[in-house]
Design a protein that fits this description.
single chain; Nucleoside Triphosphate Pyrophosphohydrolase; globular; NUDIX_hydrolase-like_dom_sf
């Protein structure tokens, strides 16, 4: 595998090796890989008409709840996420950094050693008229029990929500993302406890 110091190369490696969970996700995986092959700057915000982003659904598995943020630009309840920055080195590092910054929870860990949970393509709110789409790589982040989030200037609000009590308005994909997170945790047989969160995750 190539050096993770190059986020573009690391993204290519990650998505080339990732085993998609269903045919729809496999179509997206190939689209993401093809996009990166044609755009050497595809992981950076400056890339037009699209670029990769990374995010993380923050889950408290002990209390069966997720942390969502009321995004200041999109005005939707969304998971944490954003653009790659110099020094991130990988999409997993971007996702974890954004999750920590936007949630105020410093000891989050990525589940599955930074394996993507889901891919999504959606309109890009960051540069209207310049960048049309985000190719978003979504991860699963585990919060420790009793984690207390803190609002950042990226959002108007943030709150915990039960798996079946998601707020409105939110993007349709959030429901699919929560379902994917629940499926992965259930498939891993992860008990609802702090020890499991610590063992299953990686600080990346």
């Amino acid at each position: 595998m190539r050096s993770p110091a190059d986020p573009h190369a690391a993204a290519v490696d990650l998505l080339s090796d990732w085993i998609a969970p269903d045919p729809g996700q496999e179509v997206l995986r190939r689209e993401f890989v093809d996009f990166l092959a044609g755009h050497a700057d595809g992981v950076w915000r400056s890339c037009s008409p699209a670029h990769l982003t990374a995010g993380a659904l923050i889950v408290d598995p002990e209390r069966d709840r997720v942390l969502l943020l009321l995004h200041a630009k999109a005005r939707l309840w969304l998971p944490a996420g954003g653009h790659c920055e110099p020094g991130d080195g990988s999409l997993a590092a971007t996702a974890l950094r954004e999750a920590v910054e936007e949630s105020g929870i410093s000891d989050l860990v990525l589940h599955g050693d930074g394996t993507p949970l889901k891919l999504d393509r959606h309109p890009a709110p960051c540069r209207p008229g310049v960048a049309d789409e985000h190719f978003d790589v979504q991860f699963l982040a585990l919060a420790p029990p009793d984690a207390v989030p803190a609002l950042s200037d990226e959002s108007h609000d943030l709150a915990w929500f039960g798996y079946d009590e998601l707020p409105t308005p939110t993007a349709d994909d959030v429901h699919h993302l929560v379902a994917a997170a629940r499926g992965r945790l259930a498939a891993d047989g992860e008990p609802n406890g702090p020890g499991a969160a610590g063992r299953a995750g990686s600080p990346v």
